[in-house]
Amino acid sequence: MANERHTLTALVDNEAGVLARVVGLFSGRGYNIDSLTVGEVDPAERTSRITVVTSGPPAVIEQIEAQLKRLVPVHAVTNWTFATDGVEREMALVKVAGADRAEAKQMAAKLGARVLDDRGQATVFELTDAPANIGSFIEAMRPLGLCDVSRTGVAAISRDPG
Amino acid sequence: MSESDTLTAKARPETVSLTGAEIVVRALKDQGVTHIFGYPGGAVLPIYDALFADNGITHVLVRHEQGATHAAEGYARSTGKPGVVLVTSGPGATNAVTGLTDALMDSIPLVVLTGQVATHLIGTDAFQEADTVGITRACTKHNWLVRDANDLSRTLHEAFQIATTGRPGPVVIDIPKDVQFKTGEYLTPDQIRHRSFKPKTEPEAASVLRAVEMMAAAKRPIFYTGGGLINSGPQASQALRELAALTGFPVTSTLMGLGAFPASSPQWLGMLGMHGTYEANHAMHDCDLMICLGARFDDRVTGRIDKFSPGSKKIHLDIDASQINKVVRVDLGIVADAGKTIAEMVKLWKAKDKKADAAALKDWWAQIDRWRAKRSLAYEASDALIKPQYAIDRLYALTRGRNVYITTEVGQHQMWAAQRFKFEEPNRWMTSGGLGTMGYGLPAAVGVQMAHRDALVIDIAGEASVQMTMQEMSTAVQYNLPIKIFILNNEYMGMVRQWQQLLHGGRYSHSYSEALPDFVKMAEAFGCLGLRATKPSELDAKIMEMIDSPKPVLFDCRVDATENCYPMIPSGAAHNEMILSALSDASVSDEGKMLV
Asked: A74 vs B196: CB contact, 8 Å cut-off?
């Protein structure tokens, strides 16, 4: 069966080793991690949200969700790919040092990126967007002197108040 | 504020302060622990000191930490209580890893306490330091490193809850030495509630109803039961017996589930899988409804997956949601406790006045009887050599009616024991199923005998496996545990030899048990009774001598060295592609044949 891309989030207890448990589950069972982000979301409740972008056949995705739910510090797992009410974003820092930096800035502005740093020999752009648009931006910068890229991976959340 | 925080705050005025080591002992006692299996060392000395001051818990000193974990598994599997282990840091913890993995694979509740170097030394490559929570993360249901004595009692109580509820499994609590010395607050078990761990045990009524309707409509049904029925408790076995009686359906079981259904029942088809009976595997292949209760479609059970039971609807009951649709897509998945769910099925079957399709069932049983007529467990008898199958049959016959518990090592002897020893009750059969750990049976027998002092505890062993944890003979002697180690000695790693014969052109690469010890002399050196049988004619008397001895016994039963274990599904084959022994075909004359 064909691979599908899915974005999963797990609400977890922010305790020692919780990220290692999630990452170890993926490596131990041979699942893919395309990107992974983690951060504390409720200091009072000591919970963090981990967002994993993964790919695999539907049966494997179903197993990944079930295996994540088995982990003791995991409260809830959501698959945003099938949910219509989720939004996701990724941030990228893109460094460009071409001959014509003005052209790069012009193109960046058109694609929604902003200049984060322009003091040195290179320009660093910041772009927060859907992962596919970040890919397009990087491709647009390639002929304009692209040197380096740092991407955060996807963060996802629901539209609903609950 | 979380629930546990609330409870803690309310309870605070009533708590007492103890040292970390005292908290450990107090928590174990409050959890009802009466036995622990352990081995002292530098990083657990404060806990050993607290045990010295308190005689409420029996500590069993093993000879190797792997032995402690298997003993605790045997204890747990035969009592339904969690097994508790106490070992030191570094090598103490790493030696426990095999037993932890074994317990994870077979869903055995273990609480393993490991010492750790003092918190200020963690990460410095200190003496006997190992990253125990890192190493054991993949082989535990959950684990903790406790850095504050105030967190210790909460962690210990949560550990017991997690190990024993939902799908049981092993947990590790790593306790640095300074935390054992420091003073902390003690909370009792009823003051603790885990924040996120709430296993689901009740089945949905609609699912139970659908299952019962599928069962009533079935023409060729089979119950495929597993270790989950043992873990659920004796009421699950009881409920299965009622459901089988009500429906009249045939029952087969995995290796781990033996004993949940009585082998004396005419509805019993024997074990299924790679070395299961012809009738069990063919019934699995040809059924139109498979009712899987507390089993997990292991590769040794299913054989080739794309040819697995192609024409059947499948119901899968498991307490672990991740098992549903993991290997085999099912038509109805029920995530719940086996005992509760089967009892609900019984209730609903009666309430709805359901009837099985009697005419279809009659045909189905006629077909099953034709498969049974193949006599797939038959073997060629011998007057000169002890056949391993004969040895198991005699051991079974001579121990019938006694209070018997059987453990095994791993290999041919394990399969022969599973095929031929007939279990009537749950918790009587302790074996390493998922991990296949050679060396499991001897220490497991120590654990079983510790819990059942008056029982007849027999480790059915092979000469290769038993050498892996032989040192626990000394433990058996120290605690007056009269375990019987019945070695089917064929001078080969028999299952390896069998595969080399059948699949590797008879190239017996490193599977001969060279330079074997004299097991009788070794038994004597340990202070046990050593016995040896080499001829069928002397076997019964020697077995009786073993049973009657008040000592631990090492029985060197010299068996036919090249006997193969049949029937067999070769890897990559389907249930209906079994290899039978030459003598199992019904067309062969009955002479010289031993029937089941």
From this structure: yes
